[in-house]
Amino acid sequence: MRLSYRPHARRRQRGLALIVAMLVAALAAAVAVSLAAGESLWSSRVLHRRDQVQAQSIAQAGIQWARQILDADARGGPIDSLNEPWALPLPATPVENGTVEGDIVDAQGLFNVNDLASPVHGNAERKRFAQLFASLGLPASALPPIVAWVTTQQSAASPPTEGPRPGAPQAGSPGVTGALRVQELAEVPGITLATLAALLPRATALPLDVPLNVNTAAPELLAASISNLDGTALAALVEGRRTRPFTSVADFRARLPSGASLGDETMYSVGSRYFLVSVRARQGETVAQAHALIERSGSGWPTIVWQTIE
Rounded CA gap, 208 and 118, in Å? Predict the structure, then answer.
């Protein structure tokens, strides 16, 4: 007997074959889309990582740029003032695929929080901070916990080690006893964000008993340091140093108005060893920031006390 397929059976087979073909095509398309998406994501990640590495490299190069500027400035004499090249910020400057900008701040133009527990100048420094708190409208009750915290940090500080500290700074970096960055005050019990935000532009963390540079200190810091100095006299003092920087502490004292008092003159200077450097680099959509404390002493190349790259 001869077998034959019925027409409807053939149609059913053709329909199944078509469905299978469509499923295979859909699967192939899905695989292709998945591979393309995966490749695009991988490519995007590679490009982002490339930009990140390049931005961090540029930011680190900015720290070296600051060291060169500070080294060149040291050759010009022992006086540091706000009308020198290092004090001029670097505006956003185009580089390939991005920009770089930065600034150098005289760390000795700021109050040193570590001196709150200094056995030599602790009392005078606490008076300075109390005056600053009052002028800023900060609660006087916030100062004793800061003093206690700084004292504890100095007691627990590890011995200095050699070389810069890349990455997150740690206690025990060269030349620094106690707090390493003023941002660490966030750990003080009871310190509010408002108090910390008000202190950040006016305070730093340096080795004990580093003097305040009267050529670079902000007006409110000078006002907190000098007794019997009213607003008019303060403004005249600041304007005078802009056109004629103080050449010595004796010169600074001589140009104070009658009745104003410095107190312990070893707490002041007209030159600086420590500078804070901030660099911001952008590559594509990626931004990297570098921060460092630079020490400049003697005739040697300025050294990095601590450094962070973010």
Answer: 6
